[in-house]
Amino acid sequence: MKISFLIGRIIFGLYLLFNAFNHFSSNAMLAGYAASKGVPMPEVSVFIGGVLLTIASLSILTGYKPKIGVAAMILFLLPVTFTMHAFWNDSDPMAKMGDMVNFMKNFALIGAGLLMTAIPTPWQMSLDGRSQASLQVATA
């Protein structure tokens, strides 16, 4: 069970890290898309999204303060989901389908994050777990 949880964390964390990198490396392109959806200060918004995704990915990958990481992920996903993927506003059937897929994907990611908060901390095989073990050895 420890290994499967670790593998799942790695896959999930790398997915978030890839998207964080994309926010920084493709800021202009993503900002243009965000502007087309009516997002205020799109360049800044995309950058902040990248920061939140970086926090989330590193936290989940390392297991360090995972509830903060999940909160950062949800703080990113909620406004993005309702602003960028508002499929109910699309008149083009292809755009509507694409936005609906991304809307549902984001809700699934939010659900996965909420499930992670139900796992007792510190997580096994995590930096939090190591720091707790070090504290217990040091105080014994």
Could you give a short description of this structure?
This protein has 140 residues and is mainly alpha-helical.
Domains, number: 1
Q: What's the helical proportion of residues?
A: over 70%
Sheet/helix structural class: mainly alpha
State mean pLDDT (0 to 100 scale).
93
What can you see in these coordinates?
With 140 residues, this protein is mostly helical. It has one domain (2-139). Helices cover 80% and strands 0% of the residues. The chain has helices spanning 2-25, 27-36, 42-62, 66-84, 93-117, 127-139. The radius of gyration is 17 Å and the shape is globular. The protein starts with a helix and ends with a helix. 23% of the residues are buried. The model has no long low-confidence stretch (mean pLDDT 93).
